Every structure is written in structure tokens, then in C-alpha cells.
Amino acid sequence: MAQLLQFLFSGVTVGAIYALVALGFALIYNASHVINFAQGEFVMLGGLATVGFVAAGLPLAPAALLAILLTILVGFALQKFAVEPARGASVVSIIIITIGASIFFRGGAQVIWGKDFHRLPAFTGEDPILIGGAALLPQSLWVIGVSAVVVVALRWFFGSTLAGKAMLAVSHNRLAAELCGISVNRVLLLSFGLSGGLGALAGILIAPITLTSYQVGTMLGLKGFCAAIVGGLGSGPGAIVGGLVLGIAEAMAAGYISSAYKDAVAFVAILVVLVVMPGGIFGKKGTERV
Amino acid sequence: MSLLRIESLTKEFGGVHAVEDVSFAVEPGAVFSVIGPNGAGKTTLFNLITGLYEPTAGKVLFRDEDMTKAPPHRLAERGMARTFQNLQIFFNMTALENVMVGRTLAAEKGVFATLLALPRIRKSDEAARAKAEELMRFVGLGDYLDADSDAMPYGALKRLEIARALAAEPKLLLLDEPAAGLNPAETAEIGPLIRRIRDAGTTVVLVEHDMKLVMGVSDRILVLNYGQRLAEGTAAEVRANPDVVAAYLGTGHA
Amino acid sequence: MAGFWTARRAGLAALALAIAVLPLLLPNKFYFNMAILIGLNAIVCVGLNLLIGYAGQISLGHAAFFGLGAYASAVFSAKLGWHPLISMAAGAVMVSLLAFAVARPILKLKGHYLAMATLGLGIIISIVLNRELDVTGGPDGMPVPRIRFGDVRVRGEHTWYWIVGVALWLSVWLSLNLIESPIGRALRAVHGSEVAASTLGIDVARAKSFVFVVSAAYASIAGSLTAHYLEFVTPSEAGFLRSVEFVTMVVLGGMASTYGAVIGAAILTALPQALAAFHDYEHLVFGAILMATMILMPKGLVPTLVERFRGSKS
Predict the structure, then answer these.
(1) B104 and C189: CB-CB below 8 Å?
(2) What ipTM did this prediction achieve?
């Protein structure tokens, strides 16, 4: 029982991170129908930039905030200089562009922060809390708690603010939104920026637990994307559910089956979902009109 | 023996009955038109017949064979071809290549022969090219033999699709709104083209809005309204049918 | 006699000439090694181009087929003692069967979904290759025996240059034969409009499976050759980044252009070497070049240059 609980704790923690990454994917995909393969690098940048600012002397909170801001700007830059100029190119071309961007960001991170692993101190202490025989890290509570707040905040943003509704409009029908006077360019910038911020936040939250380096983005990004597809690409609730499901499944598989194949879980899940139910858990089905 | 027989064909999308209990038969050598107001279910009917949709109920019998659940490529093998309301031109190929694709069924498709570039592949392609040129001239596209498909005007593309469908040497050709988007001069050429196709031995089923074209070229007409059969008969009979007049033809047409 | 030189024949002759003449220009072993690696990558790309460029599909997991071919050669030759040519053939058959098995369900998907499915498949295979220590030697890889015919051992950059050169020429020849045929036109029709293609008698699912298997076989054979050339194989040959490299080579060179695929392979194989001068900035510059090229020349290098050369509007 204690073991199960242990796996559950780590599963939900990492699942919350996947959910944040998946939300980032969903935001960008909804607004622009682009799959942002550089999403994982936002996570990496958040963690590493915070490490950098802390090393420069800033306390944790301002460093984190600055790192998030920086990543938001990187998100803007990605949209403005890489995605926007390629609008109308084929799916393959755009995929290559965002992959190129992720290599670029990784390369940049390598130059700035080197190849080492870096630590961030846990927000409120390292001593695990014992619950039912299982150890729960206080940082995990931060991860889950902040993620929950983010989800609520996004809900409010999309439901009650003009900017959020504009984003929804663009995701449903770009042309119609434009005709209503919505600046699609601004919405796209916003979606990339917001995605960057979400990714960075995830990176800062998880860095105290898993360490961070210039390469952490790749796998996180891919798995976050798997989570988004499992939940239903483009669906907010789907991203969250997908992330949690994936995180827990991974922890369970690592614990009960084999830790060597832990990484494979996400990709097996995505294959199964795509073949059986491409829309994902919350996805919608459509028919092609001829 | 009817070439095409439709029996109680029904298609539901959610709660919407796009096509409901429609039955009719098309005789070989005829030009058969399906008309009706927008949303009457004409294109859905087409998609059901050509295997793009699966019906909720009913049967499609082509050349006395039950082809209700047959996929489009099987129907093509049996001799059915079609054009599309929203052009489905292969824009990644030249005009001539588009029509040559229509010759796929008759072409030499052996994998080893292809990989080793055996002479019969080249012969097959030369024959396909010749036939494609002939068909392009047949539909009036003699000026576009060397054109890229993405450089052609809309009217020419509609005729290109017809040439491509004819390249498959179908027994039955279904034309989905061939005159849609054409100016009056171009539309006036469609009727004679359809008659040329029929005279060459292909039965034609037509969905169309242009009444002048329909009345001028059809042997029989089926009128759909709200997915159901409203009337069927010759042009004169349909024109005189008060239900049809009320539902569709209105005043000042034909 | 003038009728003999079609564009196709001229291209193939030029390629043969280039392959024959190149050794005279290569100063030392290092450059021969580069040429060989380019050729091996080019074989994969020519096959992948059939799938991406002509048939309009996508695969972000093709390195898995490459890696499986490499490991098949390694395992069958080293552990089972099979002759390298048998191992290579067996690998190709195995990979083709695998590709055939996954083709139908996966190729029903389109666009991003297809990309992700192939990505998932590729990563799963690379993870398996990484973890199955007993069979594959795990993350450290395993050695591959040299090819030998009787007492004659196949070795040396010069020998391998000719092997790969001939293999590349054959790959291009087969690819061109496939494209310029009714089957090839049917594949391009699938790319143009699946719906229309099906109404013209083309079994779309079967066509997609066919080209997927063919491109997988190309990758497998190239992988086998690579394994025997390098005399070593590691799981990174099957990894996601390798898959991305292959796709980038194809897209960079120009989709729907067999020679473009070769050129793309040449550029992207040589580029990291050229960028090595940048040391730590290598990835930064590489990523920048990737983005810039795709943004400025979305159709790829060869088609864009051909268009400019012809003076037509782009």
C-alpha cells in the first residue's frame, strides 16, 4: 500500500509537469495549428535561467519571475521570427522549423550554462512528509498546488477576459475572428508567450526534484506532447487529464514492471491512442466534407 | 437491366436525415439528373453511391452487384467514375498527368517491372499519355496539353476533372455540379459535352442547379427535397409537376 | 541518338560520373569517410523522399528502421555467424515485415497525428534497442564483424567508397523507376487528393503501405551497410534526433526530388563537420541554419534553385 502511494505521489508530481507542458502545446496548437516541438525547451529555459539568476545573486522568487519573463519573450520571438514568416508552409516544413528552434535553444543553453546539471533549492525545504508510509516531497506539493492554481487561472482567463475569448475565437475560426476585428497576430504572440511562461513555470517547479540541464527539454517536450494527444489535442482539460494519466502510468510501470522501459510508456500510450482513438479522451470527431 | 439501382437509400448524420428512403434506377445510355434546392441531399446521395459515405440503410446496386459497402476504388474497378463539386484536382501534377492518373486501372502496375524499368512500363505510359491527350481534346482542353494544373482557370479545371474521370473508361459517370462556378458561355458548352459523352457509350448521372442545362440534356430527372424523393420523370413531366414547382422551380426559371 | 539522352538518363549518367570522378578530388581518408557517410545517409533519404516528398506522408521515426537494419547485421553476423549479405537481406525482410504490420493502422492518420505516431514508434524501437543489453549490448552498442568473402576481407575507405557509390546509384535508379511509372503517378495522386485517387481505382491504403515499406527497406539496407562499415553500432543510430536529421535532409534538399534528397544528405552530413570549428556554438548555428533555410526556402533547396534558374515565378 505504501509502495502504491509512493508511486502515486511521484506519478502525480511528474504528471502535473506533463500537464503544464501539454497545456502549452494545446495553447499554441489551438491558436495556430502548429505543433511546437520547442515546447520542452521552454521548460529547460525556465529552470536554467532561474539557476543563472540565482547564481548571479538574486533571491529565488525574483529569479524565477525573471526567468519566466525571459521565456515569455523567447516565446514571442519564436512566433514572430520563426513561425510567422513560414505561415502557409507545409506541415513538414513547420515541424522542421520548430525542431530547428529547439536545437537552437538547446545550443544556446549549452553555450550559456554549459553541459552540467544544475540544482535549484526546493522552495520550502527538502524533508519529505510521511503519509501512509510513503514519502511526499514538499516540492511535490508546490508542483501540484501551483499547477492547480495555473489551471484555475487559465479557466478564468479564457472564460472571463476579452483576450482569452479572442484566443478561443481564433482557435475556432481564424478568418471569422479576423473579420470581427481581432488581431490574429497579437493572439498568436500571446499564445506563444503564454506557452513559454507555462513551460518555464513547469521547469522551475520540477528543477529542485529532478535537476536541470540543457538537455532536459527534449524528453519532457515529447512526453508532454504525448500527454496532449492522449487527452485530446487542443483540449485544455484533455491536456491536464492526459498529463496526470501519463505521469501516473509511467510511475506505475516503472515501479511494477520495469524502470528500464519507463520512458516507453508515453510513446506506447500515444501509439495506442492514435490508432484506436485519435481524438484522445476529450477530442472531438469531425467528418471531411467533399 | 438497370445500370444503377438505388433502393431505399438512407443516410443519417446525428439526428439529421440527409437522405431518406430514396429509390431510383438509371438505364444504360441515359442522362439522369438529380435536382433539388440547396441542402436537399444531392451531394450526400452522390457520396453514398460512390462509396465515400456508408448508408444508414438501403442498397446501391451497380451492374446488378450489391456495391453498398464497396470502397471507392472497388467501384472504380467495376466501372464507376465521378467528378467533385469542390475540385479535387491533383495540383502537384501537370494537367496531362492528372488525366493519366485516370488510366491507372488500365496501366501496367507490376512492382518488379516498375522497379526494373522494363520496356512494358514505358509502353504503358506512352499509351496512357496518348489517351490522355485524346481525352483532353475531347473535352475541349486542347490548348492546355502542356499546362501545369495550378496554372489553369477554374472552368478548365472542371473540364480537366471530367477528362480524368473519362480516362478510367467508366460505364457510369457521375458529375457533381459540373456547371457550378462557370460563366454562361462555359455553361453552354457543358450540355453538348455531356451529350458527346453519352453518345460515346457512357451513362451519365448529373447533379446540377442550372435548370437550362438540366432540362436541355436529361432523359430523366429525379427531384429531391429535404433528403426525400419529391418527383421523378422526364423533363416535361417534372416541369409540370406542381409540387416541384412549389418547392423548387419557382417563377422565372427554365 | 539525340533521343537517347532523356532527362532521366542524363541525370543518372551525371550521378555515375560524379561518383566515378570524385575520388580523384578527395585528398585523404577523412574526405573518403565523409563521402561514404554522405552516401549512406543519401540512400536513406532517397527512400524517405518517396514517402514524404512524393506520397505526401511523413515519418519522424525512420531512424528506427535504419537502426534495426544496423542491429540486424550486427546481431545476425556476430551472434549467429551468418554471412553479412544474408544478415543484411534478413534485416531488410524483418524491417519490411514490421513496416508492413504497422503501416495500415498508422497511415490512416494524417499530418501531425501521423508525425506523432511515427515518432512514437521510432522512440519505442530505439528504447528497446537501448535496453535489451543481452541482445544489443545496450547503450554502449556492439561491435560488428567485417564483411568477408572467403579469405578476402572487405575493408578500407576506398573499397567502401565504391560499395556505397554503387549502392547509392542503384537506390536512385530504383527510385526514379518507381516515380516515373503508373505506380509512381498513383502515389503522387494520393498526395494530391486521397479522395479523388480512390475514385480512380487507386487503393489508397495499399499504396501508402507500399511506399512506407519500400522506404523502410531502403533505410534498413543503408543501416546494415553502415554497421559493417563502421564496424560498430549504437542505439543512437535509431534515435529521435537521427530521425529528425533524415527528415531534415529530405526537406532541405527538396521534397519530390530524388537528387534533392541526395544533395540534402550531402549538405547536412558535411555541415556538422564544417560547424565543428564553432565548437560549443555548433548546435546554435545548426539550429539557426535549419530555421533560416526552411523559412526562406520552404520547398527545399533543389526545387527553389530550379525555379530561380528557370526564371518562373516562385
Answers:
(1) yes
(2) 0.91
Chain C residues closer than 8 Å to A225 by CB: 116
Which other chains touch chain B, taking contact as 3+ CB pairs less than 8 Å apart? A, C
Query: Taking the model in full, what pTM does it have?
Result: 0.90
Domain A2-276 maps to which CATH number in 1.10.150, 3.40.50, 3.30.450, 1.10.3470? 1.10.3470
> Which chains does chain A touch, 3 or more C-beta pairs < 8 A?
B, C
- Return the partners of chain C (3 or more C-beta pairs < 8 Å): A, B
- In chain C the beta strands, taken as DSSP E runs, fall at 142-143, 148-149, 152-153, 232-233
CATH no., domain B4-79+170-249:
3.40.50.300
> Which residue segments constitute the domains of chain C, with CATH numbers given?
31-310 (1.10.3470)
Q: What does the pLDDT profile of chain B (254 residues) look like in tens digits?
A: 889 999 999 999 888 888 999 999 999 999 999 998 877 789 899 999 999 999 999 999 999 999 999 999 999 999 999 999 889 999 999 999 999 999 999 999 999 999 999 999 999 999 999 999 999 999 999 999 999 999 999 999 999 999 999 999 999 999 999 998 899 999 999 999 999 999 999 999 999 988 889 999 999 999 998 889 988 999 999 888 888 888 765 555 54
DSSP for C32-84, written as a single string: HHHHHHHHHHHHHHHHHHIIIIIS----S-HHHHHHHHHHHHHHHHHTS---H
Q: How far is A276 from chain C (nearest CA, A)?
A: 9
Chain C residues in contact with A288 by the CB 8 A cut-off are 195
User: Cβ atoms within 10 A of the Cβ of C134, count?
Assistant: 8
Helix axes C62-78 and C111-131, enclosed angle (nearest 10): 20
pLDDT digits (tens, 9 = 90+) for A164-204: 888 888 878 888 888 888 888 888 899 999 999 999 999 99
- Judge: B81–C199 Cβ closer than 8 Å, yes or no: yes
Cell of A266: 508515453
Residue B86 contacts A where some CB pair is shorter than 8 Å:
yes
**Amino acid identity for residue C69 in this structure:** G
* Distance of alpha carbon B56 from alpha carbon B14, whole angstroms: 11
Given a cut of 70, the residues of chain A with pLDDT beneath it are: 283-290
Element (H, E) at B8: strand B4-13
Which of A155, A212, A258, A166 lies closest to A17 in space, CA to CA? A212
CB burial of residue A184 (10 Å; 0-12, 13-18, 19+): middle
Largest CA distance in chain C: 60
The pLDDT of residue B249 is 57
Flag if A275 and C117 touch (Cβ within 8 Å): yes
Asked if B73 and C185 come within 8 Å (Cβ–Cβ), the reply is: no
Whether C58 sits inside 8 A of A91 (CB atoms) is yes
- Kind and range of the H or E element at B60? strand B57-62
Low-confidence stretches of chain C (pLDDT < 70) are 1-4, 148-152, 311-314
Chain A: residue nearest C286 by CA? A104
Whether B84 has its CB under 8 Å from any CB of chain A: the answer is yes
Please check whether residue B32 is in contact with residue B205, taking contact to mean a CB–CB distance below 8 angstroms.
yes
Domain layout of chain A by residue ranges = 2-276
